[in-house]
Structures are given as structure tokens and as C-alpha cells.
Design a protein that fits this description.
heterodimer; A: 444 residues; mainly alpha; globular; B: 386 residues; two-stranded antiparallel sheet
């Protein structure tokens, strides 16, 4: 680990010699004076050279680098900032080269993952708040369209994977994960261009919904996988029931706590942000401690917070700032942890997944649009907006790998190759959709 | 040069039509949103019970009624249009909202609706066009000829302060309490051709005036005048434009009925008109905008000063006989109830703001009111009167 680090006894020795040569010249450093009387100086107060930084500084350096590349992406290329963040992360991640040049210790993967998960937690909570159960009640066709889009995608991807000889369980898992749209990309791009309108609202709602489907279905699937290997019926029912119901109860408790405290701090922006961060942290850590699904718990918590907001306290709250911060970290860190070699190994199934998923989402959302109250052209734009992949797919693959390493490896290669491609391509199709539907409000 | 553009079409006397400019806001934050084209496309899939058109920005909508001779069917049509809009808006998760101005919208965020005339207006007026995202109710009153229309227009000017104060619903603008009950008219005042119409009392004189301005290139059509009341020759009407869009359609209907009754009363009079009536016009207009029903109006002939709420009660008494003939008594009762109990919408907005302390919540409460949710008990009260 201490690659190329010299413990600079050498420097100390050199300094001591120098001091000896010129007695009385002294050093400006306070506290050193006591030692000046003897000709032998104790310089242990000086750090090792080069100094050892805690790994967290690598995150800060990465954030700075990401901010700079994000600006380049936005100002010169007129592209979403997240592309710059991803690029920064990729450079950092690539063999730790930059870390080495900066003489920084590479982050332990666990710390990195934790930071990444926490950033994702904030993003999921933020998206959850955009889900209006009221809207689904007033326009049930939306829920139908969302379910059909999900179902079509699920069946078509599964069939394609089977046709390409992917094992049934892995095929099902790939299909489940590919349902989801990346909340991080969707929030980042819509916020950045200050998008407003039906395409925007629908992309946000459908993203939240298909994320929920993906989480619930993959939970069931994992239980099925365990049943497969162990053959206990309890697992089939108990584990998913615990995961899903437990996560929902935790989410409801978190939402209740949020409103309880929010009542006291009516309309103080700063305190509201602190409150939100605290609730996210509590729900996130509790879900890990209780071995629940952090994904589901945080999405649901956001949605419950909004739905139970009878006093409309949230109307004037804006968590955009915290969310924006989380997004920078999320993209940079996720690119830093991704292993780009999966792209080379991906092969035909990954390509097929990309094609089938794109066709399903765009055609289903487009065709069903008139039933939900907009013209089909805008539906196609909304479908294009649903292509980004990252947050949910990454976290789910990770979850699967923890519980079922072999299955994770099998499905992971196909999914991660798509994540790498659709983090960027999906952000671009979403940006195109928002611009083409006139919903992006960018300064010229 | 085509003066025939100004031929005044004959209308049935005292018929009326109402146009309402409405706000489209986000159901989550209460901020203005872009939804006009989607909502119009949705509500016109089935026959819309009236007319609906885009306005200058995507967060603005204009609905208008057919021509009515009585208050009750006008009110019924306004209610039907409201219900159609609310149903459509629910499917798009946006809220429709009355009010003369959006309390906290930032005008530089607004996008101009993509139509040639709007592009022209935006190009000509620059930031004024975007600042112009204010929302008014326009009521047309049918006249038989241009001269009659002009004479009615000038007589009506004495009642403009009452209309402003009764309809005032724009106390909050750009995020602050403007201290005005009606801040909307201040925005309109920035336009070069706003204020009162010139004192011309017969149609040929008006045509000559218009012809001159057109030759000078100052105006192209009657649309370029933003007067408080303007003649609308192609419809054969005068159009009263000082009303803020009220927070409910019931109020919009009652205001139209009240205006119709006053017009009926004024048409009976045939005294000589003099420009003296305009001496205190701007002063009175300011009083109404600033203080609402608490404002004081000066009679420039007698020099008498009256609080506006008293002036409204006096006018109600004077025009009741005419209202009876027009079947507009219910409208007058409703107006009287505002004066005696709840005041104008600006007062409701300030009271709501005191309890909620957030402009976003105020907008969402206003949207509930527009749906008729918060207005249910008031409806009952109306029946008790009739």
C-alpha cells in the first residue's frame, strides 16, 4: 500500500545537519526553540514526507476534478454535467493512476461503496418525493401503462436472454434489473435543464414506479434462487415478505418522524435540509442493520413523506441542493468503481439487452400515451427518457452478488456493460427528449 | 388604410360574455408550470363546454363563454368549463388556479407560447411581455352601435374603481406583499397604450382617431390598446378589462352580472357627458388598486369622497330594479354578501397567508378554492339568499 513512500528520516537528518552548520539560524516553527539549545534537534513534530492523507481526501480530490470536468461538459459541449462527473470517476478509477500521481492512497472499496450507497440513498429519497400517489389515483391509466411497459420489457428481455442460452435464473434477473430506469440520471438531467412539463413529470413518475417493480421482483427472484439451492419453502415466503413489508414499515416510520419534526421547524430551509439528511441516514442505516432493502425503504420513505404531507409543508421545500451534491459524488464514485473490462467481455447478450430494452420502453410508453392523456409523440419522448441505467441496476447487482455470488457474476456482466453504456447514452436520449418536447429551459 | 376594419357590428343590447385568463401551476410546489398545450389538447378531445385557447406563455390559459343574456346560464357555463378543466388537469397532475398574478413566479422563467403574434409581442415589449404574466377577467357587454358603446364606456368609467376593488386578487407578486390589493394593473400600466380610452363620444370621431394612429404606425389593430375599457367593434361590444381573475368562477359570474345590471342602469340615463368625469379617474383607480374596498373614491363633479364598500352598496341599491328585469338579482346578492361578510379575494389571500405563512401553500389553497372545494359552504349561502 505504501507504494513509493519514503519515510523521510532522510529529510530530518538533512535538516538536522543544516541546523548544526548554522547554529542560531533556527527555524520559524514554534515549539522547536526548546530543542535549539542542544545541537541535536528533535523534529518529530514534522510529518512524514510526503504526508499521509486519510483516504477521504481522495473523495474530495475526485469531487473537485468532477466539478471541473462537469463544467467542461456543460459549457463547451452543451451536454449534461454528469458526463463530466463520470469521466472524472473513470479516470480516477482506471488503475488508480491519478491517485498514484497525487500520492494518495486508493480508497478501500468498502468505504467507496458506502459513500456511493449513501449518495444513492439521498437520490432515491429525492425521487420518492416526486411520486404522487394522488396522480395515480386520478389517472389510473398511468399505472396501467407503467405496468404494461414493465411487463413487456420483462417478458421480452427474458425471452431474448433464454434464446441466447443464458441460464433461466440469470435471464430472469437480467430482465428484472433491466426494467428499472436510473433515478440518478433522470434527476440530474431534469434538474440541470430545469425541465418542466408532461414528459418530465412522466419520466420521473415512471422511473420511480419501475424502480419499485425492479426492487420487489428481484427480491422475490433471489428468494426463488435460494429455494432452488436449499429447497426450503419458508425462504420462498418469509424472506421476501420480511424484506418488502419490513422496508415499507421502516419507510413509514421514517416519514412519520420526518413530519413530526418538520412541524416544529416550519419553513426553515437549512433545518429542513438537516432534517432530510438525518431521516435518510436513519432509514439507510436502519435498513442495513435490519437487513432490509435500502432501495425500497428510501424510495418508499420519500413517497410516504410526500403523500402524508397534509399540511403541504413540502411545497416550499427544496432538497435540490443536497441531491445535487449526492449526484456529483454518485456519478464520480460509480464510474470509479466500475470495471470497464466488462465491456469487452459483454458480448451478444449485452447487446441484445440494450436493443430489446430500448425498443420495449419506447414503443410501450409511446403507444400507451394517448390513454394517459398526452399525444403519442410525447409518449415516445417519455420512453426515450426512461433509457438511462445506473443507480438501481448497480445496487441490485451488488445486492445479488452479496447474497448469491455466482448468480451475481453471471447476470452482472451483462447488466454492468449496459450500465456503462446507458449511463451516458440514456442521459443523452433523455436530454434529447426534453429538448425536443420543449420542456428544457436552458439559458442560451 | 382600411377604416372598414372598425365597422361596429350590432349586438343584442346587454348580452354578455366572459373571458378568464387562468394560471397553470405544479401540484407539488405551486409554481407556474408548462402545461397549456397539453391541457388544451386533452380537454378538447371531447367537446369543451366553451372556448379554450393558449395565452402568451405555456403556464397561462384563456377560456371564454358563449354570449349570454342572463346571469344563471352564464354561471352554469363557467361551472361546466371549470369542471372540464379540473378533470383534465387532474390527469396531467397540474392545478388550475385563479388570481390576478402568481404570487412568486419569476417572470424571466416564463416561456413564450409558440405563436407568431406572441413572438411579435415578446419581441416588441421585451421583459414587459414576460412580466405581463398577469391574469385578468374580461367581460364583454353587447351594444347596438358604436356611439352607444362609446357613451356607455365613458359613463361606466365611474364604476371602474368598484370593479377593481371587488375583483382584486393580486396582493402578492414576485414573492412579496405588494401592499396593493390589485398589483396586476400596475404591470399593465407600463404599456404605452394603457389607462383610459380617449374622451371621444361618437363612433365616427373614434374611427378618425384610430385611423390617425394607424397611419402613424402606432397601432395595427384594436388589440394594441390595453385600455381599462375598450370598444370591440368586431363583436359589437365594450370590453371591461380591469377585473383580476377571481379565485372562483362563481365570483367571475357574479361580477359579470353586476356589470350587466349597472350597464342597464346607465343606458337609461341620457345626460350630457363631460370629460370632467376623468379628473379624479387615476386617483380613484389608484385608491381601488391600493386599498381595495377600503379605498376612497372622489366624485370629481360633487367633490364627495366615499369609501368603496359604501359606494358598492349604494350602486347595488340603485341597480336592483334593472337586475330584476335581467334576472341578475342572484349576482347582486352574491356581491352584497362579499361586502357584508368575506370581502374580496385579496383579503382571503392575505388571511390565508397569515395562517399558512408560505406563498407556495397559498397557491395550492387557491387551486383548491378554484375547484370549488373550499367554496362549498358559500354555495349554500347563495341558495339561502335566493
Amino acid at each position: 500500500v505504501a507504494r513509493g513512500r519514503r519515510t523521510f528520516g532522510g529529510v530530518r537528518a538533512f535538516l538536522a545537519t543544516n541546523a548544526g552548520c548554522a547554529p542560531g539560524a533556527g527555524f520559524p516553527a514554534p515549539g522547536a526553540s526548546g530543542q535549539q539549545h542542544d545541537n541535536k534537534m528533535d523534529l518529530t513534530f514534522l510529518p512524514d514526507w510526503p504526508p499521509v492523507f486519510p483516504p477521504a481526501v481522495a473523495v474530495a480530490a475526485l469531487a473537485l476534478f468532477a466539478a471541473a470536468l462537469g463544467e467542461i461538459s456543460a459549457r463547451w459541449l452543451r451536454l449534461p454535467r454528469l458526463l463530466g462527473y463520470l469521466a472524472a470517476g473513470a479516470v480516477f478509477g482506471a488503475g488508480g493512476y491519478v491517485l498514484e500521481r497525487l500520492n494518495l492512497e486508493p480508497l478501500p472499496l468498502r468505504t467507496l461503496r458506502l459513500a456511493l450507497d449513501f449518495a444513492a440513498a439521498i437520490i432515491l429519497f429525492d425521487l420518492g418525493q416526486r411520486v404522487s400517489f394522488g396522480w395515480l389515483r386520478r389517472n389510473p391509466a398511468l399505472l396501467g401503462a407503467s405496468a404494461l411497459e414493465g411487463g413487456l420489457c420483462l417478458i421480452a428481455v427474458f425471452a431474448t436472454m433464454r434464446w441466447l442460452d443464458v441460464a433461466p435464473l440469470a435471464a430472469a434477473l437480467i430482465a428484472t434489473i433491466s426494467l428499472s430506469t436510473s433515478p440518478a440520471v433522470v434527476l440530474a438531467v431534469t434538474r440541470e435543464v430545469r425541465a418542466q412539463g408532461q414528459v418530465t413529470e412522466r419520466v420521473l413518475l415512471l422511473t420511480a414506479l419501475n424502480s419499485i417493480y425492479a426492487v420487489v421482483l428481484s427480491t422475490l427472484l433471489l428468494a426463488w434462487a435460494r429455494l432452488d439451492s436449499r429447497g426450503l419453502l419458508d425462504d420462498y415466503l418469509l424472506h421476501p415478505a420480511y424484506l418488502i413489508l419490513g422496508s415499507l414499515v421502516l419507510a413509514a416510520l421514517g416519514a412519520r418522524l420526518f413530519h413530526l419534526v418538520a412541524t416544529f421547524v416550519h419553513h426553515d430551509r437549512a433545518v429542513e435540509l438537516v432534517l432530510m439528511l438525518a431521516i435518510v441516514t436513519i432509514v439507510f442505516t436502519a435498513s442495513m442493520a435490519l437487513r432490509l432493502s435500502p432501495l425500497l425503504a428510501l424510495l418508499a420513505c420519500g413517497a410516504f413523506v410526500r403523500t402524508s404531507d397534509r399540511g403541504r409543508r413540502l411545497a416550499s421545500s427544496d432538497f435540490g441542493l443536497v441531491s445535487a451534491l449526492a449526484l456529483v459524488l454518485f456519478f464520480a464514485l460509480s464510474a470509479a468503481t466500475l470495471d470497464f473490462r466488462v465491456l469487452a467481455a459483454a458480448g451478444l447478450p449485452a447487446l441484445a439487452l440494450a436493443l430489446v430494452r430500448t425498443v420495449c420502453k419506447v414503443s410501450a410508453v409511446g403507444a400507451l400515451a394517448p390513454l394517459t392523456g398526452i399525444v403519442w409523440r410525447k409518449g415516445v419522448f417519455a420512453g426515450l427518457g426512461l433509457l438511462p441505467m445506473s443507480t438501481i441496476a448497480l445496487m441490485l447487482t451488488q445486492e445479488v452478488t452479496q447474497i448469491h455470488p455466482q448468480l451475481g457474476a453471471e447476470a452482472g456482466a451483462v447488466v454492468l456493460a449496459n450500465v456503462i453504456v446507458f449511463q451516458v447514452a440514456g442521459a443523452l436520449t433523455l436530454l434529447f427528449a426534453l429538448r425536443a418536447s420543449g420542456e428544457a429551459r436552458e439559458e442560451r | 388604410m382600411n377604416d372598414s376594419l372598425l365597422d361596429f357590428s350590432k349586438s343584442a343590447l346587454l348580452t354578455m360574455g366572459v373571458e378568464l385568463e387562468l394560471q397553470l401551476v405544479e401540484s407539488r410546489t405551486g409554481d407556474l408550470t408548462r402545461a397549456a398545450s397539453d391541457l388544451i389538447a386533452l380537454v378538447t378531445r371531447t367537446p369543451f363546454p366553451g372556448d379554450v385557447k393558449p395565452e402568451i406563455t405555456e403556464s397561462m390559459l384563456e377560456v371564454s363563454t358563449a354570449v349570454h343574456s342572463a346571469y344563471a346560464p352564464l354561471r352554469a357555463q363557467l361551472l361546466a368549463m371549470r369542471d372540464a378543466l379540473v378533470t383534465g388537469a387532474d390527469r396531467l397532475d397540474v392545478e388550475v388556479c385563479g388570481g390576478g398574478a402568481h404570487p412568486f413566479q419569476r417572470w424571466y422563467d416564463r416561456q413564450i407560447y409558440d405563436r407568431p403574434r406572441f413572438r411579435h409581442v415578446a419581441g416588441l415589449y421585451g421583459y414587459l411581455a414576460k412580466q405581463f404574466t398577469v391574469f385578468g377577467q374580461h367581460v364583454h357587454i353587447g351594444c347596438e352601435n358604436g356611439t352607444q358603446a362609446l357613451r356607455l364606456l365613458h359613463r361606466l368609467s365611474a364604476y371602474i374603481p368598484q370593479f377593481i376593488a371587488l375583483a382584486a386578487s393580486s396582493p402578492y407578486y414576485q414573492g412579496v406583499d405588494t401592499s396593493f390589493d390589485c398589483s396586476r394593473l400596475n404591470s399593465i400600466y407600463a404599456f404605452p397604450l394603457s389607462g383610459r380610452a380617449p374622451f371621444l363620444t361618437d363612433w365616427p370621431a373614434f374611427e378618425r382617431f384610430f385611423g390617425k394612429l394607424k397611419r402613424l404606425g402606432v397601432v395595427e389593430s384594436m388589440k394594441d390598446f390595453y385600455w381599462d375599457i375598450r370598444p370591440k367593434p368586431e363583436y359589437g361590444t365594450i370590453e371591461v378589462r380591469v377585473f383580476d381573475t377571481p379565485l372562483t368562477v362563481e365570483r367571475a359570474a357574479a361580477l359579470a352580472g353586476y356589470l350587466q345590471s349597472i350597464c342597464a342602469m346607465l343606458l337609461e340615463r341620457d345626460d350630457e357627458l363631460s370629460e370632467e368625469i376623468y379628473l379624479a379617474y387615476n386617483y380613484n383607480r389608484f385608491q381601488a388598486c391600493r386599498f381595495g374596498l377600503e379605498g376612497q373614491v372622489l366624485d370629481s363633479i360633487t367633490g364627495e369622497s366615499t369609501p368603496l364598500h359604501i359606494a358598492v352598496l349604494q350602486t347595488l341599491d340603485a341597480c336592483r330594479p334593472f337586475a330584476r328585469d335581467l334576472q341578475a338579482t342572484d349576482a347582486l346578492d352574491e356581491v352584497e354578501r362579499w361586502i357584508r361578510t368575506e370581502g374580496n379575494d385579496a383579503r382571503w389571500q392575505r388571511e390565508t397567508m397569515q395562517s399558512r405563512r408560505s406563498l407556495a401553500e397559498l397557491v395550492l389553497e387557491s387551486a383548491d378554492r378554484w375547484r370549488g372545494r373550499a367554496h362549498q359552504p358559500a354555495d349554500g349561502a347563495l341558495h339561502a339568499y335566493g
